[in-house]
Amino acid sequence: METSGRMGARRIYETLKAQIIGRTYGTDGALPSSRSLAAELGVSRSTITVAYEQLAAEGFINVRHGARPRVVGAAVGAIEKREASRTSARNIHLSQLGARLLKDASRWTDPPRGLVANFRYGELSPSDFPVSAWKKAMVAAISRKPVHLAYDDPCGSLRLRRALQGYLWRSRSVRCHVDQIVVVNGSQQGLDICSRLLLDAGDRFVMEDPGYQIAKVVFAATGAIAVPVPVDADGLDTKRVAKIEARLAYVTPSHQYPLGGVLPVARRYELLAWARKHDAWLIEDDYDSEYRYDTKPVPPLQTLQDSGRVVYLGTVSKTLSPTLRVGYLVVPAGLQSAFAAAKQVMDRHTPLLEQEALAAMLESGTYEGHVRRARRRNAERRESLLQALHRRFGDRVRVEGAAAGLHLVAWFEGLPIAAEDDLVRTARSKGVGVYPISPLFDQRTAGRPDVVGLVMGYSALDAKQIEKGCKLLADAVEQIDRLANWTR
Amino acid sequence: METSGRMGARRIYETLKAQIIGRTYGTDGALPSSRSLAAELGVSRSTITVAYEQLAAEGFINVRHGARPRVVGAAVGAIEKREASRTSARNIHLSQLGARLLKDASRWTDPPRGLVANFRYGELSPSDFPVSAWKKAMVAAISRKPVHLAYDDPCGSLRLRRALQGYLWRSRSVRCHVDQIVVVNGSQQGLDICSRLLLDAGDRFVMEDPGYQIAKVVFAATGAIAVPVPVDADGLDTKRVAKIEARLAYVTPSHQYPLGGVLPVARRYELLAWARKHDAWLIEDDYDSEYRYDTKPVPPLQTLQDSGRVVYLGTVSKTLSPTLRVGYLVVPAGLQSAFAAAKQVMDRHTPLLEQEALAAMLESGTYEGHVRRARRRNAERRESLLQALHRRFGDRVRVEGAAAGLHLVAWFEGLPIAAEDDLVRTARSKGVGVYPISPLFDQRTAGRPDVVGLVMGYSALDAKQIEKGCKLLADAVEQIDRLANWTR
To answer: Between A and B, how many CB-CB pairs are < 8 A?
Structure first.
């Protein structure tokens, strides 16, 4: 009977029970009505009733006439939750790319809960999200009945690309044709498209050191080889790039990640000259350029003459939310067809309703108003953090890269790198999430720091959390100092 | 002055003019206020005023005190719209994958407008979209203030995966652990992840012939080689697969695309045995299994014993909308880590609000209610199309694959394949969009049809459009018949 898809009451009962225990319906959640489940499974309603009666008899569900059966929360709670088993993929034949990814990619983990303050970079405060504006824009997008429900342009909706064209010019002096814009699912997908279109196995690519690790992982997944180049207070050391033969360089000129330098114009021209000489591509990741405090804007590489080798990358992950997954590329004219073809086979196009909603916010000026407000709030947060660090640590902490963006680097003088793990653990035990900079350095080069440095993101925190977090961090440092004196 | 990012009034004027002509603001659209533009560009407000005054003097914009300047539509209309130039990428150094994509991928084109009926497969009727349910679910998702705005699980929100786990079991008898589910941006991304994790350059993969071309393009982009295997009325000819050495087979067992056969259980077991013998993967694309009319459900490969080599692929593109870009994979336990790593570097995760909205619709039963309604409507459309074809063409048209899905194949006996282009053009000139099946056949094999066959999608059309479309199609066929008699 298996083959016709019809199931007996016993198998239905067993599967439902497994699902209830696996919390498919949540605790106290409702199961489907017997009528609708019978229709879906193609069995008689009485078959479902038998299964439901058995589950009710065993205390898994409550059945009331005329209502959908509900899970009995207590019954579920009593059964230990089976732990998710993400089986290892050893002995499984993966592609070379798959094997590389499995080796290099760091595994995503649930954000820690219940911390007093989590200085994790990349998170935003839910209170900054423009809930009513986004709701309004989204409702309008859903209500607008389109002529077709059909796949849209792989490069993104024309309406959004027009709106972005104007925005990019106003906010970043970027002048481009609408057809050079490719809407992507966040900058991560932008990096991925670049890796696939521009790198082959064995190619070399320049990475800032320290730098953005997930970019390195996605480029290296192609089989290409990272060439780390040191970063100083002004960003990438372009003199050192000059001698390197490579296909591509990944750069963050507006606000180097993580050290925060702003690449001077002279270095920008050096980079462009290098790219021209080597027939190489520059990936300009302008990930947080909306946030600029006491520094003048420097125009992106994309706006400088001879920018036909620059792929410019922007995102709303730092202005609206990283969970929306919307970003955009400005690609050289000669690459338009390749990017369109790649985006189409990768996922057809970015979800259309989000694109419409963002376009509406850009057109009405709501987006730029929101960005101005977010900029003010983050300027306040930054000020709070600078003051708290100064108050708690005085000269012991040297701050780097605070002129722009949503994070800074705090170097703890006299706290040797060997104490890093201890500091992270001790701080966590006191309720503070801190993230060392050392994993962002290339592990093969000599340039790694010898004192503890933390990448401190502040955009998800309020002033009180920042103040409290710094106090607890100071406690943690003090505790580690004491331990160091003990063991000496 | 360029280097500080400050611009003079002339450059601002020139750029605005180019944008107005390029319709960045639409015709009659509003430009930013001088205050906000000045703030964005970091120049004085009077600089913007000078630029705006020049544009007004030239008739490009209307300036009124206290309001944002507006584009003068007539001025824009008078200037010929510069055609989008998607420059060719010749002489540009792309990766091997990039070069293959550029060669193989068909370019997306705007859907034709103003047709009486467009029988294009894959489009849905906007009147079927559950506007108010989606709006409600989306508003709830936006309003629910999360603890963090942070990257979520690359495999998808736990809430949605739990809801899908129950749905997949109820609707498709698929039993799986929540961790086997990976939420993707439509089935296209599911195919892309599979191509990257499971295929290397030089590997061979089995494709149904005729088959789904964009799957072939994405698999072949890795450098792997397609091995076409013929399809008959029962789907893939698995006897022929048995002798083939390959890493992967892409199959559509529920409703073969495009011919519509339902793969019998015996063939399913043959496929599974083949995969086991060759250590190969089966990609089971269950793209339209929600639509089943006069055929019994056959359980997916995924549900049959020994399914540790099956990657199951589903989508809401055929039930809600192709523009939402939500799909899901059920992967074998051993592949979970690799899929999680790949999804993370590809785009972090699928947009979260959509996932929450879909989860809410699944939990409340709204989704399944919607699917039942859509099924009824599409059953009516299918009936209309079958009747209209019979009435207009009688025995001349042989229908294939109408038992399930959202399309059928209409074979026109006595209309030689050489007349195919003529028929498409003639039908289009009469206001009907029709799409021949021949491009879905492997171009290297002998199995191509010798009479015209059309893949007729009906899910975007109402009964009147179907009736009118078939009448006009009959006119077109008659016209071609007459021409054929003439030239004989």
So the answer is: 403
